Amino acid sequence: MAEQFEILWNTIRERAKALVNPISYSTFIEPLVPVDIVNKKIVLQAESELAARTISKNHMNQLREAVVSANVGLTGAIIYVEGSEEYAVRETPDAMEETSVLLDPRYTFDSFVVGSSNKFVFAAAKSVAENPGENFNPLYIYGGTGLGKTHLMQAIANEILQKKPSLKVIYTTSEKFLNEYVDSMYTKKGAGRDSETRFRNRYRNVDVLLIDDIQFWAGKYGVQEAFFHAFNELFSQHKQIVISSDCPAKELTTLEERLRTRFEGGLIADIQPPDIETKIAILKRKALEKKFVVPDDVLAFLVKNSDNNVRTLEGRLNTVIFASKLHEEPISLSLAATALQEAIGPDEPEEVTPDAIIRATCSHFNTSKEDLLGKNKRQEIVRARQVCTYLMCDMLALPLVTVGQIMGGRDHSTVIYARDKIAELMRVNDKIAKDVNDVKSAVLKQ
């Protein structure tokens, strides 16, 4: 979670830089460290009470303006000093708000690569963002893992928050919605006896509701009932609803029929696997974001014999970039071929299986399959488990729920956390990148 705070703060800090004079910015604003988010306010730790006092007296309005103008779903800031009575965090987290899924500001329509396989769903998403509740309601987006569903969902939310800030927008995952439902029904924390009412009001008093990976509710009829009533309430008020899934609505046979028919009553848009030209365009954009120049022949090689998962493509690119940094060589076709442990040729690579990834991970980290898939909390075992989960997502075209089942019956949110955690660490930690690449090489050699 700390990495997500940092991403948000970097965006806010750039806005603050333009609002605060350079000397004050470098002295007081730049050293602030994001440590938490409470009630849609970012908690920023100052170095001393003197610094906190100066910021609170002279720069709080500019800081608040920077937070709002950054359009990252936050409304303000709290200045905090560790151990200080004067600058402690006194706000009590809202029982429902604290479970919100924060939007990634990098997920925008501009950063989404449009090709023949996804131009229809992209146009539908743009239309919804421009006129929420008026054109396609609900919008149901479906497609395989790693094709861009979450990117488009968050792009809709980010666009609406930027262009129509008066609207209340909630983006969440089906897992988060389910957890909040369970808390509201069976626990008495935070909101106490009002928890059920607060949950109901939270999801019925919005202008735009986006829920990712709806297939996770398969067989869970209590949460389906709760969403059914929220859906009806929002739909009757012409509020926008956007849903994503890994399959068409008609194939969600374990969802109630009345839900499926409501999904089918809106616009159903699928994201098809990208063609070769789109894959190359995606890699070009990813390379540009990482500030690396990758020759066209290397890009063509990276997409050759690749599956349709965009994360797999990015994983291949990361492998080559890491090899370039490690060997201090410019990226070339020979470097890419060596880094990926694949020869250039027409032969199809052998099929990668979950067992192959598990065996390679256990061997590399010197652990047993029982510990890897079990509940052992030792740091080195947890890291091996996260690497294995990342590679399952990276190398296999499997639904996240299936990956969780393979990895010892873990839930959907745990898989997402492990995948994203390792992906982020690979960008900043060469040892983690080497571990991942070594395990991947071992898998390909089996």
Protein architecture, described:
With 446 residues, the protein is α/β, with parallel strands linked by helices. The protein is 54% helix and 9% strand. The protein has helices at 2-19, 22-29, 49-58, 60-69, 119-130, 149-163, 174-186, 195-204, 221-236, 257-264, 276-289, 296-303, 310-327, 333-339, 354-365, 369-373, 379-395, 400-406, 412-428, 430-445, and strands at 33-38, 41-45, 76-80, 139-143, 169-173, 208-212, 240-245, 267-271. β1 and β2 form a beta hairpin. α1 (2-19) packs across α4 (60-69), α7 (174-186) packs antiparallel against α8 and α18 (400-406) crosses α19. The longest helix has 18 residues, at 2-19. Residues 95-99, 187-193 and 342-349 have low confidence and may be disordered.
Largest sheet, spatial ordering of strands: 5-6-7-4-8
Helix content: 40-55%
> Into which percentage range does the β-strand content fall?
5-15%
Counting helices, strands and paired strands, the structural category is alpha/beta
Question: Mind sketching the topology for me?
Answer:
Blueprint: H1 2-19, H2 22-29, E1 33-38, E2 41-45, H3 49-58, H4 60-69, E3 76-80, H5 119-130, E4 139-143, H6 149-163, E5 169-173, H7 174-186, H8 195-204, E6 208-212, H9 221-236, E7 240-245, H10 257-264, E8 267-271, H11 276-289, H12 296-303, H13 310-327, H14 333-339, H15 354-365, H16 369-373, H17 379-395, H18 400-406, H19 412-428, H20 430-445
Helix pairs in contact: 1-4, 5-6, 7-8, 11-12, 11-13, 15-17, 15-20, 17-19, 18-19, 19-20
